[in-house]
Write a structure and sequence with these properties.
The chain has 14 helices and 16 strands. It has about 450 residues and is an alpha+beta fold. The chain folds into 2 domains: about 160 residues, Creatine Amidinohydrolase, Chain A, domain 1; about 270 residues, Creatinase/methionine aminopeptidase superfamily (Creatine Amidinohydrolase, Alpha-Beta Complex). The strands form 5 sheets. A 6-stranded mixed β-sheet has the order 4-3-2-1-5-6. A 3-stranded antiparallel β-sheet has the order 7-8-11, with helices on both faces. Strand 9 and strand 10 form a beta hairpin. Helix 7 packs antiparallel against helix 8. The longest helix has 26 residues. The two termini are about 15 Å apart.
Length: about 450
């Protein structure tokens, strides 16, 4: 794939991007008025150096900064927002022969640039302090307290941050365009990963194929790609890439995304290899069918907690159909059996952070957290769905020995066919994950489309 196939939403959706920035300005002005602020200063963040070393860790810009400025990876820069004024972007682009500095955006190359006053910083410098009460948002307020003093600012005010977090929950047309492009790029990677798996590649070969097809370097992916062959598919956040292909090819699980102007996709697919048992193939088909039924229920007003619990009930039905567990689905859920086969939540909000903010805070004015239901502590989204929310739906089923062994050792184990569990163990598990945007009458699936091929 050539770079000419990479779509840039700041250009193809320039009008939507202008509307996005106008809505941000309006939302920030409301927040400033409600929190008695005259200005908000956002810091982009700065790279962290490894201890006793001269190398920096991989860096990602502060998400609230990226909400305004579509330049992922921009460090040591500032954005000053004031009511009824164009935001001032203090953009750090040093004179440097060791590294390539960021290019200064201009209206000719970046249509969004005309919405900002842009000040070029050649050295890390504080912005000019705005008049009145100032809020400073960013990690710098904690790492360099002297910056708070010099700007005479309130660091990361909790109520203000919650309100701005809420402003990221429902996506604008521009943001949806970025998410859609991120899904398209990730889908190309997933298809390349599957081809490499079928050709007999090792985990590292599959990872490299994914990166090449999705046109990303490893430090740019929104999260560390999970590429698990066989039993590694049961390690939920498996973090290695084996150099040698296994002798038997039972399964592949790939959980990987892409990032466009900081907006992430997060897609998972499970594939059966030549050595997979029919039982494992049936498990993949069952989890995928389950996922599609849950997606069909998406709409504004649906409680995501109810969907999560329905996922467990349907997983119980599937385990019973396959002969793995003999108990009725409701009893499996009540006894924690389905939780041992699927210990993670159904999904989460998606955006500038893979697990985006405010997933458990339905009302930013109080900040009260809606906790997950008992027995399901890993559920990251506990809200009622609203139009514009970007979410994932990712049911799974795994053979994780440390979670299943307690079942074997008590009365619940009498209802589990351990021979089938042991037969599935070399396959690891299954997870199917799509990215969706809630619409007025349902949901837009960004992952399954003619364009993505998934």
């Amino acid at each position: 794939m050539s770079d000419s196939q990479l779509n840039d939403p700041t250009i193809t959706h320039a009008a939507a991007h202008r509307a996005h920035l106008a809505a941000l300005q309006s939302g920030y002005e409301v927040a400033m008025q409600q929190h008695d602020m005259d200005a908000i200063v956002l810091h982009s963040g700065k790279p962290k150096r490894h201890f006793a070393d001269d190398q920096d860790a991989s860096f990602k810009s502060h998400a609230h900064f990226l909400h305004w400025v579509p330049m992922a990876g921009l460090s040591d820069s500032w954005l000053v927002i004031r009511p009824s004024e164009r935001p001032t972007l203090y953009l750090y682009a040093p004179d440097d022969f060791w590294h390539l500095s960021p290019s200064l955006p201009t209206p000719d190359t970046a249509p969004w640039a005309e919405q900002f006053e842009i000040v070029h910083l050649r050295k890390p410098t504080l912005p000019q302090r705005p008049e009145g009460r100032v809020a400073l948002l960013g990690e710098i307020a904690e790492l360099q307290p002297q910056v708070v003093s010099e700007l005479e600012a309130l660091p990361n005010p909790v109520g203000l941050v919650r309100q701005l977090d809420e402003g990221r929950v429902c996506k604008s047309e521009f943001e949806i365009a970025c998410l859609k492009e991120a899904s398209l790029r990730a889908a190309r990677g997933h298809l390349a990963a599957r081809r490499t798996f079928m050709e007999g590649g090792a985990e590292l070969d599959i990872q490299l194929a994914y990166l090449g097809a999705s046109r990303q370097r490893e430090s740019d992916v929104p999260y560390g790609n999970i590429v698990g062959l066989n039993a590694h598919a049961a390690v939920l956040h498996y973090q290695h890439y084996a150099l040698r292909a296994p002798a038997a090819r039972h399964s592949l699980l790939v959980d990987a995304g892409a990032s466009v102007h900081g907006y992430a996709s997060d897609i998972t697919r499970s594939w059966a290899g030549d050595d997979a048992l029919p039982l494992y193939r049936a498990l993949i088909e069952g989890v995928e069918a389950l996922q599609k039924r849950l997606i069909a229920r998406l709409a504004p007003g649906v409680d995501y907690v109810d969907l999560h619990l329905e996922m467990h009930r349907e997983l119980g039905e599937l385990l019973r159909e396959l002969g793995v567990v003999s108990l009725p689905a409701e009893e499996q859920v009540a006894q924690g059996i389905t939780a041992a086969f699927c210990p993670h939540g159904l999904g989460h909000l998606l955006g500038l952070q893979v697990h985006d903010v405010a997933g458990r805070i339905p009302d930013h004015t109080t900040g009260d957290i809606r906790q997950p239901p008992q027995g399901h502590p890993m559920l990251r989204l506990t809200r009622v769905l609203e139009t514009g929310m970007a979410i994932t739906i990712e049911p799974g089923c795994y053979i994780i020995p440390m979670l299943l062994e307690p079942l074997r050792n008590d009365a619940r184990g009498e209802h589990i066919d351990w021979k089938l569990v042991e037969a599935l163990a070399p396959h690891g598990g299954v997870r199917i994950e799509d990215n969706l945007v809630i619409t007025a009458d349902g949901a837009l699936n960004l992952t399954r489309s003619l364009a993505t091929g998934l």
